[in-house]
């Protein structure tokens, strides 16, 4: 999905992956985005201060 987003001109800043092996592969192929390796339900909420 990130590759298609990049091809469409979208800057991918963050990715979420729960599986550590899949996350390692993703990080190898896409080193630019910050990678959150955990269940998305554990992602901290955004706070606009």
Distance between the termini: 30 Å
What is the CA-atom radius of gyration, in angstroms? 12 Å
The overall average pLDDT, rounded, is 91
Number of strands: 2
Q: Structural class, judged by helices and strands? A: alpha+beta
Read across the widest sheet, the strand sequence of neighbours is 1-2
- Unreliable segments (pLDDT under 50, ≥5 consecutive)? none
Shape, per Cα inertia axes = flat
Share in β-strands: 15-25%
Number of helices: 2
How many domains? 1
The major beta sheet can be summarized as: 2 strands, parallel
The percentage helix is: 25-40%
N to C succession of SSEs: HEHE
Helices and strands, with pairings:
Layout: H1 2-7, E1 14-17, H2 20-29, E2 34-37
Parallel strand pairs: 1-2
């Amino acid at each position: 999905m990130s590759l298609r987003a990049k091809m469409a001109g979208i800057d991918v800043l963050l990715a979420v992956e729960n599986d550590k092996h899949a996350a390692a592969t993703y990080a190898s192929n896409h080193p630019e985005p910050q990678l959150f390796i955990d269940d998305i339900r554990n992602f901290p909420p955004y706070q606009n201060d």
